[in-house]
Specification:
With about 30 residues, the chain is mostly helical. It has one domain. It is about 90% helix and about 0% strand.
Length: about 30
């Protein structure tokens, strides 16, 4: 149970960091 929770938390963090990286790339494309 606990291992599953840790896995889900890690997945959430990776998703969030991936979105942040995507935003940085997007801003570079816009030239902001």
């Amino acid at each position: 149970m606990r291992i599953q929770d840790e896995y889900e938390i890690r997945e959430e963090r990776e998703k969030i960091s991936g979105e942040l990286k995507g935003m940085k790339k997007y801003k570079k494309l816009i030239g902001a």
